[in-house]
């Protein structure tokens, strides 16, 4: 069985540190007004960006589990 | 390491030649749509998202990917996909921040943004760094092409009694000649369309290798069971081995690479500039990252995974000692029949050509916008007509492309010393992207970031990066996350974190001390010898930079001198260059995107939502840049006179190729008819009797 260094540590680091960048991006575009919640298309793209983060998170988790247990 | 030669048959060579001729004819057909330098470089800001998204696939996938990711797939398994699945973190910054800015400010190159946001000197520094970056990228493309084609050729041949040995460098020179000729007569529209065709072909060819490989092995289950567990993990080991580890690649590719890719890859930025609107650009970017990149990760890496499985099942067919950079070609040759192998190799090499020609086109755009035009403006007072000037610029662009092709070939020499293309590319990325990435990123997202600060970032950052190369221990070691020290190629990937850190450090220090710098400049100005003092600062800074570049003194002395140098540089920058924060951030940072939009339109925004309508067109008298709809049609589009409008051929498969951006003029009473000028007709290449789609832009 591969070690923690080979499986979940990279995953936690990827979405932990990457998540900080992602979240700060959301906060900055909201604070600066670049994202305008009144605009329908902006609301749509806001949802797409959040979906994308969890989409990749799920894909990576599923692949690790498949490698370990299938 | 096993070296392969003369793979493939004469049928494969015939297929390859036919494919190349077909793709060049295809590109030449679309080059007729280049009417101006704007078309040549940017494709005229008119294309639909799907066309741009597919064309990005060929640029991203074609670039060295089949060779380098198959190599890592063979050595490490599914973790070769890491770099294709770590780009999402910067998407909010890109789609809400940078993308609207590049479209609305109408910048033609990244350095132009630096001039608008900071100063002419900053533009010059950015041009220099960007050209290094892009020429290096061209070099990586040539190296990969050479490594892809070399296994297909014999080690030597005789022609007219002369004996020739086929070397990697010799082959690269021949490839460069072909690429240079193609791009010189193509232009951006041709590139976009050949990339579109190749995007589809590449995905097909890569998937074909995967399916044929699985079939060769006896099905997916056999393939899955053959691979060791470590090979099936999607992320590499955290910090081991130095040649391929997670944490280094996260900082080199996931952070520096992603920001570099989205913010300063001129090839990609020009693709987004060719999109008809910001919203279409957002669609192209998100579709590409969410769907095309994961598919591309399989497409480019699977030959390595199949190769690994075959090397376990049958080591005599694919020896485990095979050169990783040859594995794609070796596996494709093993699992396919003659002709199919030729098709796969043609798709691969043509895609590599796509990447290189996109980059060369982008490099020529930087040259024209950031060197040719400013220098010409400075040297000549002769007034030329718009057409004369454009013709001359097209010629200069073509000559520049030829020169950059030559320089790209030269950069292959240092890159070829790395064990694989992956390592060469990783090192190149982690070294050249951080200064510009930091400068662009903070320029867009931090209003307080000043002209003096960006100069301090570039000069100080580069100085400490050079010191990092001379003294990886202890400078980069502090950031290594436990990655082992490899004396031949120290900290290939994690070096990116150190480089980003030192650039960001100077950015923050110099920005936060702006008030103190200005006070000091004021004090110096009050002295009698202020000009002399400033000249001494500049000369001393140059001397210190040279001492660092040639590593003349000890680490600690050079380290202290770097901080002194940056101090003098920012003081001199404040003294010589006027910087008005309000003026220089207006419409140029994420804080004022609506202003940028207003400047783009030239009048107040009309953001009421309207319909897209279909209309017939008629030619009008006069050549003014307005088109005329009926009052009712204007109402349906929620448009007013003076608003911006986009009209295109209603046949969707053209993807905006036949289209024009223009302005609403005074309305008439004929519903379903738009009156356009002869210039609109020629520019949009509209067809008589065919409907147009019209939509209000803003």
Written overview of the protein:
The complex is a heterodimer of chains A (70) and B (698). Chain A is mostly helical. Helix content of chain A is 79%, strand content 0%. Chain A has 2 helices and no strands. In chain A, helix 1 (8-32) packs antiparallel against helix 2. The mean pLDDT of chain B is 85. Chain B is mostly helical. Chain B contains 28 helices and 8 strands. In chain B, helix 3 packs parallel to helix 14 (278-313), helix 9 packs parallel to helix 14 (278-313) and helix 18 runs parallel beside helix 21. Chain B has a 6-stranded mixed beta sheet. In chain B, strands 1-2 form a two-stranded antiparallel ribbon. The A-B interface holds A 1-2, 5-7, 9-11, 13-14, 17-19, 21-22, 25-26, 28-29, 32-35, 39-42, 45, 48-49, 52-53, 55-56, 59-60, 63-64, 66-68, 70 and B 78, 85-86, 88-93, 95-97, 100, 224, 229-230, 232-240, 246-247, 250, 254-255, 279, 282, 286, 289-290, 294, 445, 589-591, 593-594, 607, 609.
Distance between the termini of chain A: 12 Å
Rg of chain B, alpha carbons:
27 Å
How much strand content do the residues of chain A show?
A: under 5%
Structural shape of chain B: globular
Question: In a few lines, what is going on in this structure?
Answer:
Chain A is mostly helical. Chain A has helices at residues 8-32, 40-69. In chain A, α1 runs antiparallel to α2 (40-69).
Notable features of this structure?
heterodimer; A: 70 residues; 2 helices; B: 698 residues; six-stranded mixed β-sheet; 5% strand
Question: How would you summarize the topology of this molecule?
Answer:
The complex is a heterodimer of chains A (70) and B (698).
Chain A: H1 8-32, H2 40-69
Helix pairs in contact in A: 1-2
Chain B: H1 10-30, H2 37-42, H3 49-62, H4 65-76, H5 91-104, H6 110-117, H7 120-149, E1 156-159, E2 162-165, H8 168-184, H9 188-217, H10 220-226, H11 229-232, H12 246-264, H13 266-273, H14 278-313, H15 327-335, H16 340-379, H17 386-415, H18 421-445, H19 451-470, H20 472-475, H21 495-512, H22 514-526, H23 530-549, H24 555-576, H25 581-585, H26 593-601, E3 613-619, E4 626-627, H27 631-636, E5 644-649, E6 659-664, E7 673-676, H28 678-684, E8 692-696
Parallel strand pairs in B: 3-7, 4-6
Antiparallel strand pairs in B: 1-2, 3-8, 5-6, 5-8
């Amino acid at each position: 069985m591969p070690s923690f260094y080979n499986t979940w540590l990279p995953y936690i680091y990827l979405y932990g540190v990457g998540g900080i960048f992602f979240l700060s991006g959301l906060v900055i575009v909201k604070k600066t007004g670049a994202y305008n919640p009144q605009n329908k298309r902006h609301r749509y793209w806001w949802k797409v960006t959040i979906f994308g983060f969890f989409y990749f998170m799920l894909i990576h988790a599923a692949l690790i589990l498949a490698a370990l247990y299938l | 390491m096993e070296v392969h030669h003369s793979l493939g048959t004469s049928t494969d060579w015939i297929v390859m030649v036919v494919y190349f001729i077909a793709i060049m004819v295809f590109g030449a057909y679309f080059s007729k749509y280049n009417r101006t330098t704007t078309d040549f470089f940017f494709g005229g800001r008119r294309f639909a998202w799907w066309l741009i998204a597919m064309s990005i696939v060929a640029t991203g996938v074609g670039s060295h990917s089949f060779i380098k990711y198959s190599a890592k797939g063979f050595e490490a398994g599914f973790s070769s996909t890491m770099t294709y699945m770590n780009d999402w973190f910067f998407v909010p910054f890109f789609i809400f921040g940078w993308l609207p800015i590049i479209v609305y400010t109408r910048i033609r190159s990244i350095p132009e943004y630096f001039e608008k946001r900071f100063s002419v000197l900053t533009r010059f520094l950015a041009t220099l760094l960007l050209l290094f970056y892009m020429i290096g990228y061209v070099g990586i493309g040539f190296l990969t092409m050479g490594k892809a084609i070399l296994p297909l050729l014999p080690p030597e041949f005789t022609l007219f009694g002369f004996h020739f040995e086929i070397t990697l460098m010799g082959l690269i020179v021949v490839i460069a000649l072909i690429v240079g000729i193609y791009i010189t007569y193509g232009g951006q529209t041709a590139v976009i369309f050949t990339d579109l065709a190749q995007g589809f072909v590449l995905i097909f060819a890569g998937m074909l290798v995967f399916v044929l490989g699985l079939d060769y092995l006896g099905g997916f289950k056999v393939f899955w069971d053959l691979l060791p567990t470590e090979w099936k993990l999607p992320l590499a080991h955290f910090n081991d081995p130095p040649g391929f580890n997670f944490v280094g690649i996260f900082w080199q590719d996931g952070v520096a690479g992603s920001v570099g890719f989205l913010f300063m890859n001129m090839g990609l930025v020009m693709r987004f500039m060719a999109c008809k609107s910001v919203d279409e650009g957002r669609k192209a970017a998100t579709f590409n990252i969410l769907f095309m990149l994961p598919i591309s990760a399989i497409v480019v890496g699977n030959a390595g995974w199949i190769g690994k499985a075959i090397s376990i099942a049958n080591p005599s067919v694919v020896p485990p000692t095979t050169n990783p950079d040859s594995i794609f070609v070796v596996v494709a040759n093993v699992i396919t029949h003659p002709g199919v192998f030729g098709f796969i190799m043609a798709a691969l090499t043509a895609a590599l050509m796509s990447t290189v020609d996109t980059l060369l086109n982008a490099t020529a755009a930087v040259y024209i916008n950031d060197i040719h035009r400013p220098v010409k403006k400075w040297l000549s007072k002769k007034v030329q007509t718009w057409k004369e000037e454009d013709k001359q610029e097209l010629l200069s662009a073509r000559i520049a492309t030829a020169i950059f092709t030559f320089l790209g070939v030269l950069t292959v020499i240092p890159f070829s010393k790395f064990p694989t293309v992956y390592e060469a590319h990783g090192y190149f990325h982690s070294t050249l992207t951080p200064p510009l990435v930091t400068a662009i990123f903070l320029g867009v997202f931090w209003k307080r970031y000043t002209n003096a600060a960006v100069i301090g970032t570039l000069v100080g950052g580069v100085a400490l990066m050079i010191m990092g190369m001379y003294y990886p221990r202890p400078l980069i070691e502090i950031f290594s996350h436990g990655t082992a020290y490899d004396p031949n190629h120290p900290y290939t990937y994690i070096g990116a974190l150190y480089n980003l850190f030192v650039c960001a450090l100077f950015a923050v220090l110099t920005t936060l001390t702006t008030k103190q710098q200005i006070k000091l400049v004021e004090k110096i100005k009050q002295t009698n010898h202020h000009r002399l003092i400033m000249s001494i600062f500049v000369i001393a800074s140059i001397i210190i930079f040279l001492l660092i570049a040639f590593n003349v003194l000890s680490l600690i002395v050079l380290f202290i001198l770097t901080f002194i140098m940056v101090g003098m540089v920012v003081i001199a920058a404040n003294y010589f260059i006027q910087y008005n924060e309000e003026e220089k951030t207006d419409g140029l940072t994420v804080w004022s995107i609506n202003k940028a939009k207003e400047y783009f339109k030239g009048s107040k925004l009309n953001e009421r939502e309207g319909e897209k309508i279909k209309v017939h067109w008629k030619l009008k008298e006069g050549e003014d840049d307005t088109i005329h709809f009926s009052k009712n049609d204007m109402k349906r589009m929620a448009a007013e006179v003076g608003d911006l409008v986009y009209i295109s051929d209603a046949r969707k498969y053209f993807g905006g190729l036949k289209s024009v951006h223009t302005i609403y003029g005074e309305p008439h009473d004929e519903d379903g008819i738009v009156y356009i000028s002869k210039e609109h007709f020629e520019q949009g290449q509209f067809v008589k009797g065919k409907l147009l789609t019209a939509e209000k832009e803003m």
